[in-house]
Specification:
By secondary structure, this protein is α/β, with parallel strands linked by helices. The protein has helices at residues 9-15, 20-30, 54-64, 81-94, 112-123, 140-145, 168-180, 203-215, 274-277, 309-317, 326-337, 339-366, 385-394, 411-425, 451-465, and strands at 43-44, 106-109, 129-134, 151-156, 185-191, 219-223, 283-288, 301-304, 370-372, 379-383, 427-428, 430-431, 442-446. The chain has 15 helices and 13 strands.
């Protein structure tokens, strides 16, 4: 029987969309490396998980994990009053909002992924555009499109301009292009701190984007999921340690010339001049547990909309489809209610991220590998073009010729090397082609892992790339 007679147009579109990136993520998650139980498993250097505080968070969660009769009942679909109150208290303490956020400004969802999906359903009709500057977190595309059928249009912004207000010219160019095609644009998603570069936007850059959105009546979804994971600020991150740190991430002539401009993270909620920049009703904030609290698997995120109660109401209407388990709501309410623990945890979180960043960048410096210095998050945006050229020349197909310049690399090379590394080296990283990089040869590397594991993975990755010959899988689909 033809699927056209059975399924919706949306389902048919999803069924026909083969995505090698999502398939590879699934393989990496289902066959994870374990030194004892699965030594031939895939070492994950690509999925943004912070494993540096696992024992601390496990001990805390196990101490508050009790099941009561209330947990057996239906929960409040958009988050219990206790949970939303504790989230608002956490935001008011750490995000410095001009006006305190209250519980009624918050809608809890089963993860930030679900929050984006629900926001796209509320804000967009199928086919309408959402702008995101690239390189960007690739799953934004599926988050916003699979159900709501909003369409992400990437706005290529050079790495050197990610923190600059001049990037607005690229948004304007894309908007003009879409207008010329008769496509309605409804929103911009801004990930601050930025994924995958780990940069904090300058205040001037955010203000310029807000003013641009206001001129064009676009919603601005500020994804601040890494807000508490900023480990290098404007002055120095050395206050997180007792001794002075020499930042390995400050690039020198031997490594490259990518800017190490550092800006303080400022939540858009803290902008005292917000109403002078944009109609505040167009501004929405996202946050959640996965990154800053190292709880990816708990699937709890939240939308903060203090300036537009209709957004909250519309999300609450469909909240039954993004329900959290009552037990999870109860545990997280207790976790976020323990402010003394959270204060201590946040200090340890930043200290551990900084130490791992220092070790990783020292390793990369010693191998003369270029990268964009990061300030926040779990990742580094790394340029491996010289290694990709070597890999390409060691693995030429019939009728292919040796190359000597990065300009000769293709995104097919990017994809082929990535799939080859996963299959044979048993290493998962994120290829730049999946993040809409403007050129082949970039990868996102996750450094928020115990050093013994990370170093083993890095050694295995680079040793494999530099081998004389590797197998090259056929590309099943283009990203």
């Amino acid at each position: 029987m033809s699927t056209k007679l059975v399924f919706s147009n949306a389902a048919i579109e999803n069924l026909n969309d083969s995505n090698a990136s999502l398939e590879a993520i699934g393989e990496a998650m289902n066959d994870q490396y374990d030194e004892v139980a699965n030594p031939n498993g895939i070492m994950n250097l690509g999925i943004a998980v912070n494993k540096l505080q696992e024992e601390i968070i496990l001990k805390k969660l196990n101490s508050i994990n009790t099941v009561t009769k209330k947990d057996l009942e239906y929960n409040t679909a958009f988050g219990t009053e206790t949970l939303r109150t504790n989230i608002s208290n956490m935001i008011n303490k750490n995000f410095n909002p001009v006006n305190p956020v209250n519980k009624d400004d918050i809608v809890v969802t089963n993860g930030a992924t679900s929050a984006l999906d629900k926001l796209a359903s509320v804000l967009c009709n199928p086919g309408e555009a959402i702008l995101i500057s690239s390189p960007y977190y690739s799953v934004f595309e599926t988050d916003l499109n699979l159900v709501a059928k909003a369409v992400v249009h990437n706005v290529p912004v050079p790495v050197s301009e990610i923190q600059s207000p001049v990037q607005v010219r690229y948004y304007q160019k894309k908007l003009d292009e879409l207008n010329g095609k008769g496509i309605t644009t409804k929103a911009i998603v801004v990930c601050n701190p930025h994924n995958p570069t780990g940069k904090c936007y300058s205040r001037a850059a955010v203000e310029a984007i807000l003013e641009f959105a206001n001129r064009n009546k676009l919603f601005v979804i500020m994804d601040e999921i890494y807000a508490l994971s900023v480990f290098r600020n404007t002055e120095s991150a050395s206050d997180l340690k007792n001794d002075k740190i020499k930042h390995a991430g400050d690039l020198n002539d031997a490594v490259g010339t990518y800017s190490d401009n550092k800006y303080e993270f400022e939540s858009v909620l803290s902008f005292e001049n917000l109403s002078e920049l944009i109609d505040p009703s167009l501004v929405i904030v996202l946050h959640g547990l996965s990154k800053d609290f190292c709880l990816n698997g708990f699937r709890v995120g939240w939308v903060v909309s203090p300036f537009n109660k209709q957004v909250v109401t519309a999300l609450c209407k469909i909240a039954m489809f993004s329900y959290q388990a009552g037990l999870v709501d109860s545990i997280i309410s207790k976790l976020l209610g323990d402010t003394e623990f959270l204060d201590s945890f946040n200090v340890i979180l930043r200290k551990n991220l900084l130490e791992s960043y220092e070790r990783t960048t020292t390793y990369l410096n010693n191998k003369n590998i270029k990268y964009v210095p990061s300030q926040a998050g779990h990742f580094l945006w790394i340029n491996i073009q010289p290694l990709m050229i070597r890999w390409k020349n060691n693995n030429l197909r019939k009728n292919q010729f040796r190359i000597t310049s990065p300009s000769e690399l293709t995104f097919d090379d990017d994809m082929e090397m990535w799939l080859s590394v996963i299959k044979d080296a048993r290493i998962y990283y994120t290829a730049g082609v999946n993040f809409k990089s403007d050129e082949p040869g970039w990868i996102r590397l996750i450094f928020s892992q115990p050093w013994d594991f990370l170093k083993k993975g890095l050694d295995r990755l680079f040793d494999y790339i530099e081998k004389e010959s590797n197998s090259i899988p056929q590309i099943k689909s283009k990203i």
